[in-house]
């Protein structure tokens, strides 16, 4: 494997028929799973380095239940449990060389919803979702993971340490309105611009990561 080979970070969300997770919980769990791997890659440091060295941070979310979930959980990876959601992050793999038990999982079918409003953010960082876009929960989970990763990259060691001490927590919320989202995009905060592989147009701004220490860290749009 060379460092220019296209790689992808697999994420698997557990969606049991009788008890699917809340959408917001799944998005936050996905972001926290990505952060967990970035903060402590452990034995997968080589795979993580190769993935990030490509200059792309592609992520694919698949769903599993029952025996599918148990097989996914038996593969190398790490599971994050967050309220109603369970998300497993696996070490990056070449795009065309997924482990068999992951490759067999479905990408579609992640139409999750929230049974109640998510309420006010629990604290920074807040990953704000573009209210203009319509994304499946799986797509939005990958985008939230991107936003968390960009926020991590934009944080210094002291800020990461404080974030780590808070359990690498994030809040995911829809922006109050389009004007508010557009103002955040222009404020020098980490912004996710989608490559356009699925669901939405290339270049669409999907998420903005906001925290006091992130303001002005990146070039303004």
From TrEMBL:
Q: Name one Pfam family in it.
A: PTH2
InterPro entries named among the record's database cross-references: Pep_tRNA_hydro_II_dom_sf, PTH2
Listed EC numbers = 3.1.1.29
**What's the top EC group for this one?**
hydrolase
Keyword list, A-Z = Hydrolase
* Gene3D superfamilies the record matches: Bit1
GO MF annotation list: hydrolase activity
Reactions catalysed: an N-acyl-L-alpha-aminoacyl-tRNA + H2O = an N-acyl-L-amino acid + a tRNA + H(+)
Q: What is this protein called?
A: peptidyl-tRNA hydrolase
> What taxonomic lineage is listed for the species of origin?
Bacteria, Bacillati, Actinomycetota, Actinomycetes, Streptosporangiales
